């Protein structure tokens, strides 16, 4: 579904990713893990059209998208869930969710999807009229995920969903990610919390200073000595 080929992205003279290669097959959860500054967020920004790569290719269902606008990329079926704190504060939960569907015109289908989001995140229905700024970090993360789902993505990009959340919330959010995947959405997840990210991943890639240094199934990476030492405190 997604193929990233020899992707190099720069910020001025700083090279953030160095000829990265990886792919995501339809139906998978793929996790990219790595320390601070490894280049994970940069990869997501390049895929969603927020930062142009200098070289390399990003193919979505065989179509090169690295020069497409973010709007076009969303229309093709890729939606990014930013960290939970990037929800629209000063707007209600409902307004945030409606923003996720702003490129769609199919009103009755939008209503169905709103119901689907409330089924997955019942707390959001309870708080639909509440200003998003008043929600907890975990609830804001749910708003961010719900908003992305409102665009009916084929591929969901998740940026550090565990960031700043208490362990109980992390568990809940990751259960929901698995459920969304089981219901047919392909997921690319970037995380510093390697343990939770690899536990739910079909496959994973380890990034270090802008390069892929290791790959395998989630289970293989969890069991690997290098990953244990570098990311799991083992
Ligand atoms: P984190 O989890 O801390 O966000 P990351 O793995 O997502 O880390 P990136 O944010 O992609 O890493 O950063 C990769 C490299 O690019 C780092 O060396 C970082 O300092 C640099 N970088 C990121 N954003 C910018 C920017 N806007 N301007 C200059 N350098 C940047």
TrEMBL record:
Keywords: Amino-acid transport, ATP-binding, Nucleotide-binding, Transport. It comes from the Bacteria. Transmembrane segments: none annotated. SUPFAM superfamilies: P-loop containing nucleoside triphosphate hydrolases (SSF52540). The keyword Transport applies. The keyword Glycoprotein does not apply. Gene3D superfamilies: P-loop containing nucleotide triphosphate hydrolases (3.40.50.300). One of its GO terms (molecular function) is branched-chain amino acid transmembrane transporter activity. InterPro entries: AAA+_ATPase, ABC_branched_ATPase_LivF/BraG, ABC_transporter-like_ATP-bd, ABC_transporter-like_CS, BCAA_Transport_ATP-bd_LivF, P-loop_NTPase. Residues 2-234 form the ABC transporter domain. GO terms for biological process: L-amino acid transport. PANTHER family: HIGH-AFFINITY BRANCHED-CHAIN AMINO ACID TRANSPORT ATP-BINDING PROTEIN LIVF. Belongs to the ABC transporter superfamily. This is Amino acid/amide ABC transporter ATP-binding protein 2, HAAT family. It comes from Carnobacterium viridans.
